[in-house]
Model the fold of this input.
Amino acid sequence: MKFLRPKLARHSRLLLAIAFALSPISGHASGNGIPEIVPGETWHDTDGHFINAHGGGILFHNGVYYWYGEAKSGHTVLPDCNKSWGGTRVDLTGVSCYCSTNLYDWKSEGLVLRAVPDDPENDLHPSRVLERPKVIYNHTEKEFVMWMHIDSADYSKARAGVAVSTNPKGPFQYLGSFRPDAGVWPENATSEDRKAGSTNALARDVQGGQMARDLTVFVDDDGKAYLFYASEENATMHVSLLTDDYRHTAGKYTRIFIGRSMEAPAVFKRAGKYYLIASGCTAWEPNAARLATADSIFGTWHELPNPCVGDNADKTFLSQSTFVLPVAGRENFFVFLADRWNQWDLPQSRYIWLPLEFDAKGVPKLRWHQKWQLPPGVAALQAHR
Ligand code: GAL
Done:
């Protein structure tokens, strides 16, 4: 026995070490086994790999949450064409998908939309840009529709891309990319807006369609869906109605936050009001979050102060918005999802998830939490129809 004890102890220490290494610790289960969200920490999937879903969004469908995001892997480089503004990149890999029923434990479903390496002209060629994929479900067509920002490496194409699938786990079929609302003036265009001029990107692009970079999609209670996107050289955001099948813009749109240079939009609705959280335009560098609210989705949108409170509030806790998730069965519980970008090693970027608080007037606040828990019994809410 004398000899056995140290041997056994060593053995069990080894077993413990193996168990620790294999368990999805970081992120999301605390030492006592109670799951927690740990913003900014590494977050592993149920196979023990880092969750790789950046600039992402979550779809709730039939009791399951699907987290879609940019799969970022390989070396981060700074192409010459983006040197002036620090636009580092990795090759386009595709869109990843993870499934969960509790928002803590995520199972990888792999890539649901893949790069197309053998065709340099394809939007999905590794040399291109695919960012901020968001998926919504069309009840009429029984189809999952993915919207994403598609671009060339120098970000000059500025297009919206669409892919569809009958299964939330993919594979998604890529339909192509375009500039929204070609040939149509926005509903709120003034006579001044319609005058061509060297600084008028709106007028310049009316014929061919408006520029679309950072984007998101939002489905309203009546089933109508809308695309929010940074347009006009990122100076002004647009909100466009989608067609009933959600595959295209419908030719009805307004300009919002004119000249405010906002990107990374995340849109949600609470107690009949629309809210938008976004960022300023400083590439991968964090900046102060923008917050706005509206009674009608096309506006008027009213800006409110930065919702972040406390240390690093002026930098959105060193992150950039990507999505706001309404949590099931809790009318007033919304989770703010953001990316803490690692500009020089993009695959090492982290996720910041924080609960949104609302004051008596319904104004959202975001406070930093080292770690936090979802309300018990998180179940399904109509996050996105
Ligand atoms: C950010 C944008 C990201 C990505 C990045 C490139 O401002 O939100 O989605 O485009 O710039 O530097």
